[in-house]
Design goal:
single chain, 318 residues, alpha+beta, 7-stranded mixed β-sheet, 4-stranded mixed β-sheet, 11 strands, binds adenosine-5'-diphosphate, binds magnesium ion
């Protein structure tokens, strides 16, 4: 599409992005060189950034409204893992030739929908063009009461390992989105395109968790991240991981149950939370226990107590 078919750069920012500031004075109407954020006494600012590339993190020709919402959601998952309340974001976008004015408007509508749904205000950004691939990145800001952020490094020996919900939705969602797996009710593709960040657990995490990470690399790997950051060993029982009906149906059709479960636990993009909590605090979180932390290092994976190779998603003592 030629530049003549769409507004000039200044107008594009005004029309696409200014409404997304939702009147926040910090954004200075996207007319200044930068945003100016006053400090908030008694709170810490939690900051996270994720980038997504067409053909790598989302399917080629994905609807740009979905790309926008997925971008916010994968970043929101990081805020959720820290117990933070969403506040604002900065956006970088490299438009490609397929991004005409209607596509840009669809992208902005996606940002508007999830910005409003999750309480996020656009504070600034940068806009460039590229022959491809389409690349988008967001830096999200969230608030936590001073000192209350839930870190990866807070687990203690004797803590239980918990997970907030179904594992494997990311791995199976990708297969379904690529048309390689049936998805009768559409739940797998929906998860792949629009994951649900677990912001609902914020208060419980701050109160009861000793450590937390979101499951973006895979359950085994991300549980391992908690263990390593906390200088502990972790044990995971694959027989205890929660599964969706779709994952259960897929699992029932697989020959090797240990391999299949390890596949689900290594796939990533689940956007659930892995949590460490002391045994007396774990019940208050109301999510399944799938393992425990011990003195030492490394990851051990079992299936109902029988050792299983953790696979490449796992890190083992050399
Ligand atoms: P500069 O050239 O001074 O870096 P720009 O022309 O890139 O400024 O941006 C002007 C204003 O528009 C800034 O406030 C910037 O934050 C905002 N802006 C530009 N692109 C975006 C975007 N994709 N999303 C949100 N704000 C943007
Ligand atoms: Mg400037």
């Amino acid at each position: 599409m030629s530049g003549a078919d769409r507004p000039g750069e200044f107008d594009q920012i005004a029309r696409l992005f200014r409404p997304l500031t939702r009147g926040a004075p910090e954004a200075l109407n996207l007319l200044d060189d930068a945003a100016v954020i006053p400090s908030r006494p008694g709170f810490d600012l939690v900051v996270t950034k994720d980038a997504m590339v067409e053909g790598v993190h989302f399917l080629p020709d994905e609807d740009l409204g979905v790309v926008a919402r997925r971008l916010l959601r994968v970043n929101l998952s990081d805020l959720a893992a820290k117990g933070a309340e969403p506040y604002g974001y900065f956006l970088a976008i490299a438009w490609t030739p397929r991004c005409g004015w209607p596509e840009r408007e669809a992208f902005a509508r996606g940002l508007a929908a999830d910005g409003a749904a999750f309480g996020l205000t656009l504070l600034g950004g940068d806009t460039v063009s590229t022959p491809g691939p389409l690349t988008v990145s967001a830096t999200l800001l969230g608030w936590v009461p001073q000192g209350a952020a839930v870190l990866r490094s807070g687990a203690r020996a004797g803590d239980l390992l918990l997970v907030s919900g179904p594992i494997g939705q990311g791995a199976l969602g990708l297969l379904a989105a690529e048309g390689r797996l049936p998805d009768p009710n559409g739940s797998l593709v929906r998860h792949f395109r629009l994951p649900e960040p677990r912001l609902d657990l914020r208060d419980a995490l701050r109160r009861h968790a000793s450590a937390c990470a979101d499951v973006s690399d895979g359950l085994i790997a991300d549980a391992g991240h908690l263990a390593r950051a906390s200088n502990l060993a972790v044990e995971i029982d694959l027989a205890r991981i929660p599964l969706s009906d779709a994952a259960r149906a897929w699992l029932a059709a697989q020959a090797g149950q240990a391999d299949a479960l390890r596949y689900l636990a290594s796939g990533g993009d689940d956007y659930q939370l892995v949590i460490a909590a002391a045994p007396d605090a774990a019940a208050s979180l109301g999510v399944p226990v799938i393992g425990r932390f011990m003195p030492g290092e490394g990851i051990s994976v079992t299936l109902g107590g029988i050792p299983v190779d953790p696979g490449p998603g796992g890190w083992r003592h050399p």
